[in-house]
Amino acid sequence: MTIMKTLLEFKKIADALHGSGGYENGAYLVKYDSETDDQYSKRRAVAWFANELFLACDRFVGYISKRPPNRTEIKDARLLKFVDDCNWRGDSLDVFWQSFMIEAKARGSMLVLVDMPQEIPSNAQSQLDQRAFPYLVTIKPEELVDFSVDKRGRLTMVEIKDMLDDEPVIRGWDEEKWYIKKDDQIIKSNNHGLGLCPVLAFTEMNDFPALGGFSSMEPIIKRLYNIRSELDEILRRHTFPIFSAQFPLIEPSMYLDPGTAQTMQAKMIGQLQEGIKKLGAERGIVSPGSVGFVAPPDGPATTLQNTIKELEEKINEIGLKIDMTGERTAESGLALTIRFQALNAALTRFARRMEDLERRVFDVASRWLKIDTEAITEWGKDYELADPEREIAILQQMQAAALPEEVIKKQMQTVINAQFSTADPEEVDELNNSVDEFSQERPLPAEPTNQGV
Question: Which pTM value belongs to this model?
């Protein structure tokens, strides 16, 4: 896939993530060949959109957010303040990353600008008081008009569309300066002195720009959007019985010549058709026979409902959805374990990429402040999501088999981590520590005796 095609894919993914673009105005609905413009317009007006991609990304990011990064060795007061307010809106770095990760997980790529106010007071206290320290701005990859990377895959130049005084401009950054262009002419610029481009790229895999695992949901979501509209149209037209205004055939006879019979037949059909119009153009039919009602078949609607269910299941599979509670699936314990392992691996992989990005953010922020990079950040390495019921069953089997105490203790901690996966990490640590205390307090089994032998 070419770079430009990838950037176009990002726009489609953004629409699927936020319900914007063709989902908002109905343009993603495919017009039927037999559909009039008026019918198509009405169908677009009532089409509805279920935000599956956002739900999947939000669920995925929720697992990571339950284990916030551990940041140490931050001594500079401005960097500490940056962690608490990183984007001029009072959002902490953790809050900022939550929104950023949802966007990044959907696309597989995302950009962040580490910027600095233009006017900086001379002393550190004034910088704190006036919020004159680095801040972050997210840049969506579909907003790019140009960019370049070096051999190591790092961005060396980025240009995006922007507005200045209600006029379109190009805003850019490279390894030496930031600049604003209008009509291909630089109208404003300044050296930043960082020695690198302050726009950093995040990718879930490979070099920027790259699509991620969840990006394959986009065409399925678009198909779901259309097929749900098709189902609604069938239900709207055929949910209720259709009035069958049937008529007798008027045959010529010795008392009725063919011309008169044909005229009478046409008049009868015309009167019935006028009556049908009063019911609604699609609520009745005119055909030979007696008057009655016709119940439409449910086959087409059932077929669409089954197809919708299959597409939804595919989205859940791509989105790594695992029902921790509620309706149980019929899959085997091994299959469920494999699904949990896949989810845990994906969470760890994503968190490590985010850890690398945060290190680079602190590096650029430290360059802006002209201090040595001092921050140490560590993201979660193992999320240990599992099925509590299955882990309890394994624990019971271990206890019944009289396995060593250390093995049972480890499995007890696995049960705790699975059961309380959404609890505060510090509370989970306390519960895990209680396993050791419980094992120490529990009396050892009595030694066997030879009595009765």
Answer: 0.77
